[in-house]
Target: Tryptophan--tRNA ligase
Amino acid sequence: RPRVLSGIQPTSDSFHLGNFLGALQQWVPMQDEFDAYYFIPDLHAITVPQNPKELRKRVLVSAAQLLALGIDPDRSVLFVQSQVPEHVELSWVLTCMTGFGEASRMTQFKDKSAKQGAEHAGVGLFTYPMLMAADILLYRAQKVPVGEDQRQHLELTRDLAQRFNKRYGKTFVVPEPHIVKGTAKIYDLQDPTSKMSKSADTAAGLINLLDDPKVSAKKIKSAVTDNEREIRFDRDTKPGVSNLLTIQSALSGRDIDDLVAGYEGKGYGDLKNDTAEVLTEFVTPLRAKVDEYLSDEAELLRILSNGADRARDVASRTLAQVYDKVGFLPRK
Ligand code: TYM
Model:
């Protein structure tokens, strides 16, 4: 079976709706078609300062959310990145094959380092994309389901795979991003031309899956729209309305055209109420399941350590080939 791999950072107490609709919603059905590897990149998380206690808790909450969303440890390999040391080992080789200028062009690095002030930004932010390339190439993944904001990192990963293959002989699979057009970028409810992100200036535009559904419903009802009255999909002139339609459509499984037709003669209040309702229906049982997984920490740790063992089986074989090709002496 072809292989799929993806990851989500444990940098918050809850995944947000953009994470879910842009990426995680694809992960679950892909378990049936692919040999699936899903992981929590805690090594990526420390590219910005993290509180140790909080990080530990957030890794567990992340795992519980993935399980609650339907990632099944019997059908996919679910693991934590730091428990598979091969990620760091391969990332060094890839870092040494990446141009300084090439890495400097990564827009996520430019944005994040600008936010911290260039002098204070950690070097880990700069080498982040090569660690991400290692994550993917170690497993020879064909498909990587992500949101639009990861496209450039995937392109770098492809370039590095091809560069290595050309220099040392065919070793890596050149992966393809799996980006679902309609939901690849979910926007901030208060600023619907910027992507929904936990680092936005205000939390009012961000829907966290684990927040109280009443709070989230309120945020939907206060979403910024426009001065017209007509409900139709147009990202350029009606970004707020289009974002709500996207969210409702993705959560309910109904097409946007179908939704729009149903809103003829109705107002933005109806659109917001219905969107808040489908969201509430989605998050209410999810929160209960997450609590259930979190209530048995020993079981969670067991699932993750079992996942790490299975991941290492694959990762260590790829790394051994890479080290041999690069000219390192065999280990042991
Ligand atoms: P992260 O943790 O920031 O986000 C997890 C996933 O959510 C997607 N996403 C969005 N999709 C649509 N609309 C949004 N507003 C939105 N915000 C976030 C992201 O595109 C991502 O798919 N570098 C990665 C983690 C990573 C990884 C990997 C992913 C590390 N190694 C290997 C794939 C393969 C990241 O920071 O995602």
Remarks:
- The first strand starts at residue 3 and ends at 7.
- The chain has 13 helices and five strands.
- The pocket of tryptophanyl-5'AMP is lined by residues 5-9, 18-19, 22-23, 41, 44, 132, 135-136, 144, 146-147, 149-150, 184-186, 195-197 (CB under 6 Å).
- The beta strands are 3-7, 35-40, 76-80, 143-145, 176-178.
